[in-house]
Amino acid sequence: MKKLSYARIYKSQEYLESLGTIRYRSLFGGYSLTVEDTVFAMVASGELYLRACEQSAQYCVKHSPVWLTFIKRGRPVVLNYYQVNDTLWQNQQQLVSLSRYSLDAALKEKQSRFAQHRLRGLPNMTFHLETLLNEAGIKDESTLRMLGAKMCWLKLRQINPALTVKILYALEGAIGGIHEAALPAIRRQELVEWVSSLTPEPVY
After folding, report:
1. 3-state helix vs strand vs coil in the chain, percent to 5
2. Fewer C-beta neighbours within 10 Å, C or N terminus of the chain?
3. Where are the transmembrane segments (predicted)?
4. In the predicted model, what is the mean pLDDT of residues 82-97?
5. Distance CA 158, CA 166 (A)
6. Rounded-to-integer distance, Cα 30 and Cα 6, Å
7. What residues does each domain of the chain span?
8. Level-2 CATH architecture, domain 1-115
9. What residues form DSSP beta bridges with 72?
């Protein structure tokens, strides 16, 4: 398995060389890939996983990727990294674009890390919502902001498929620092239309 992972690392360095010098180190039983000491991807069991961010939300909705999971104290823990499948490997231009999104988001998070705060202090953040976010691996404000409301909502929906658009309003408001009721009507409508677009229309 280690041989497969090294082969994947070298292939990633070749395909993504335009991002800069890609280095790797052992992490979580796999390997982290970094540019300028900033982690943007992981290699585990011979597969490449890109760090999820708001810009990659649409890709994740369309392709329903496999998420990187590791076992901690006997329980599975899902990380914010999605698998690069064979189809994406064959589309190098899209792979580079998504990888750049991951790197840019990681760099922004790194730059704002000093401003991290607990989720509890944000608007709309109930105990139940904070618990759901923690279960999804979103444990602080910087991660919430890095992923964006849509990606966070998608990850929460994997835990609770019955999640409503009201939670999306709450997440959007939390990031914007306002109560969900104060979200502009135009933005609320955009979010409603986005959620509606995720459900395919029935074919008769």
Report:
1. 55, 20, 25
2. C
3. none
4. 95
5. 16
6. 10
7. 1-115, 122-198
8. 2-Layer Sandwich (3.30)
9. 75
